């Protein structure tokens, strides 16, 4: 017995050493990627950089040239870096984002080990993180994805811990982490179903004193979220008469209704609202890309509409088209739901390759950088990565979904399976409803998918080898 314990201790030490080595390899890989040339500040990246300028100049609430379609978290980060790092802010931002990728990998390994209780499975999760390069590549761009993935993963870990045992302290940290994620991107709302599931699993039976304490912890979480999100909602109420975190639904509905996808998009409806929109858009000249939501929105604001008015007009026309073509819209949603799990990585979309660098996105004297050999190394890896191949993405998605089902088979992990199922369904469904799927929208789930794959398949292998009844007996004997 003593010899067996010593063997287990030795294995754990080897696994721990392997994790440290892999974390070092991951750090070297990310450092090489960071040293390569960053993505140009065009498209959304340019918009975030301009909002950062406003914050750095002292306009913290961004009331000068206000927009309603952005949350303030990322512009605040960029503004702080501009104010403290000056001309080096661009490099510091990208470097911090690569640090966030490393922290996400470390969290993924720790979570895997905590769920499975097997240190060597944490090694496997780090191996996947090391060979994965598509998700880290987005750290080169001034975009929210990298920071958001870190906070999204940390929030889900915190929610899963609440599902095991709820305390006021855990509830406080859950609220803080979730609040930061929400300020970065409103899609953090998709974690609400996971939070409700975790909360419900703790509150079966009568309302005794213990469950009263858990309800208090729920109030703590909601209170923290209200304190963190409330000021921005008040700002939107004062500026746009909309007490919401963002006003963005119209642009998203426009893309899912008239944008790319199968079956083909419906025609613009023949209504007074639609004719008004078309007249305003065509005041700036003829347009052929009616499915491009940002082109349409820009034309509307150039015609004199505010950010909110343009969004509301696009939402009205989209809703009219949806009511006139419900079956077509339903079919397009189903197609997007499948495409969500089949979206491959695109180098050009991650680095805005081929997009013109508009004047408003120029460098403004900031120091750019780029090590030629590092860039050649990074680009050669990225342009041949398995995440850029449909078969690789389909295999990854299938393994993760089956692994998620495996979590439900064990009495030790089924609650985690319930929480992760709610999180994955919430994120995938909302994205399919309001956005055309692309890799960068699904990649926020990749740490969760790694945990599902490794922990879930560990359960499946045990069930195949020993039978499910043995898992119940093991749990009852501990």
Report on this model:
Among the domains are: 1-139 and 346-384, no CATH class; 252-333, no CATH class. The chain is 71% helix and 0% strand. It contains 22 helices and no strands. It has helices at residues 2-35, 43-56, 73-85, 89-116, 119-131, 134-137, 145-164, 168-184, 192-201, 209-240, 249-258, 272-282, 293-302, 307-324, 326-340, 347-351, 372-382, 390-407, 414-434, 439-442, 446-466, 468-477. The relative contact order is 0.12.
What are its keywords?
478 residues, 22 helices, mainly alpha
Summarize the structure.
This protein has 22 helices and no strands. With 478 residues, it is mainly alpha-helical. It starts with a helix and ends with a helix.
Report the sheet-strand fraction. Answer: under 5%
Distance between the termini: 17 Å
Uncertain segments are: 205-209, 358-362
- The SSE order reads HHHHHHHHHHHHHHHHHHHHHH
DSSP strand count = 0
The coarse silhouette is: globular
The overall pLDDT average reads 89
Q: From the helix content, strand content and strand pairing, which structural class follows?
A: mainly alpha
Radius of gyration: 24 Å
Helix coverage percent: over 70%
Largest sheet: none
Number of helices: 22
